């Protein structure tokens, strides 16, 4: 089977692609974060220059220092940020609400705070001309912890209820709310995704599948994309070395623990021809967001990634 839509997509990336301290001539992630928080204008200038050099025109804002607050400190307001991006042929396509910087969905008494945070993000996105807000569900707990925490129908129903309220709130800003399939979260396994999608209204809740994270959970990213194609507003294109084969400690270090299982596009186990074919049939087909967590040479990595995508989109895919 070949792709039904051979038109070249817009390429985008998550700002986390530029978080490797070596790219900034610094020794550690802490050093980079401290420097970037103190120098938001210099941080953004170099990121935007690198995007232009790599031929990538879209960005997804993420957790600090590549977040909304950083952009506001550097440029003053959303319209000024938008004009600076437009002058370079760039634009924001989405923003990710990091759980570490957002109200906790596991608590039942902070729905108002959750909605207010989502609306703040959505208002900014509307001002910069973007239409997608990406969120995640809470993390699982370390296996064996007592009392046990089960991702069951009751839990997922609570998550769906919150997602509906938040999705309706951001829709009033012209923004769609899509959920990311993060490793070791409660939206990780294929079964998690299917259950959450079944419990949510497709008018208000969308999906942002991450090919790497689904593979890290032992799932089939292509099968997930095909099953939920009509609800995929955006996808994260990332490769995986192999499924995570140990029980990780789920705490503030879990993201670092997952890092060795991730790799650049075309060097892992993701079926890019099948993924590209599935993505071509989704509402988010016009954007390819390449995610490269903390690339030491982000320009080279993005160029290599776009080459992998172009090849995958032009070659026959498995039936």
Keywords:
319 residues, 8-stranded parallel sheet, two-stranded antiparallel sheet, 12 helices, globular
Protein architecture, described:
By secondary structure, this protein is α/β, with parallel strands linked by helices. The protein has helices at residues 29-38, 40-54, 68-75, 78-87, 111-128, 153-171, 190-199, 211-216, 221-227, 254-258, 272-279, 298-314, and strands spanning 10-14, 58-61, 91-96, 132-136, 176-180, 206-208, 236-237, 239-240, 262-263, 287-290. Helix 6 packs across helix 7 (190-199). The termini are close together.
Can you lay out the helices and strands and say which pair or pack?
Elements: E1 10-14, H1 29-38, H2 40-54, E2 58-61, H3 68-75, H4 78-87, E3 91-96, H5 111-128, E4 132-136, H6 153-171, E5 176-180, H7 190-199, E6 206-208, H8 211-216, H9 221-227, E7 236-237, E8 239-240, H10 254-258, E9 262-263, H11 272-279, E10 287-290, H12 298-314
Parallel strand pairs: 1-2, 1-10, 2-3, 3-4, 4-5, 5-6, 7-10
Antiparallel strand pairs: 8-9
Helix pairs in contact: 2-3, 2-12, 3-4, 4-5, 5-6, 6-7, 9-11, 11-12
């Amino acid at each position: 089977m070949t792709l039904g839509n051979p038109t070249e997509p817009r390429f985008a990336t998550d700002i986390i692609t530029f978080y490797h301290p070596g790219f900034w001539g610094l020794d550690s992630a802490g050093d980079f974060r401290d420097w970037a928080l103190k120098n938001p204008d210099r941080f953004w200038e170099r990121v935007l220059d690198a995007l232009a050099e790599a031929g990538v025109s879209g960005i997804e804002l993420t957790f600090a220092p590549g977040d909304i607050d950083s952009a506001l400190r550097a440029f003053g307001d959303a319209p000024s940020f938008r004009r600076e991006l437009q002058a370079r042929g760039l634009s924001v396509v989405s923003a990710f609400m990091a759980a570490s910087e957002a109200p906790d969905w596991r608590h039942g008494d902070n729905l108002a705070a959750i909605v207010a945070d989502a609306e703040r993000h959505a208002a900014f996105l509307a001002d910069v001309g973007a239409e997608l807000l990406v969120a995640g569900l809470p993390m699982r707990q370390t296996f064996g912890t007592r009392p046990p925490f089960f991702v069951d129908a009751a839990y997922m129903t609570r998550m769906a209820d919150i997602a509906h309220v938040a999705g309706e709130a951001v829709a009033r800003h012209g923004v769609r709310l899509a959920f990311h399939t993060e490793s070791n979260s409660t939206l990780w396994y294929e079964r998690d995704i299917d259950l959450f999608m079944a419990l949510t209204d497709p008018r208000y809740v969308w999906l942002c599948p991450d090919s790497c994270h689904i593979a890290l959970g032992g799932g089939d990213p292509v099968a997930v994309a095909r099953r939920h194609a009509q609800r995929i507003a955006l996808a994260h294109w990332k490769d995986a070395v192999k499924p995570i084969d140990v029980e990780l400690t789920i705490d503030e270090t879990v993201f670092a623990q997952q890092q060795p299982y991730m790799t650049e596009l075309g060097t892992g186990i993701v079926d890019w021809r099948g993924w590209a074919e599935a993505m071509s049939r989704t509402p988010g087909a016009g954007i390819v967001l390449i995610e490269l967590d903390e690339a030491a040479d982000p320009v080279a990595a993005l160029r290599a990634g776009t080459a992998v995508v172009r090849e995958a989109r032009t070659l026959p895919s498995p039936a």
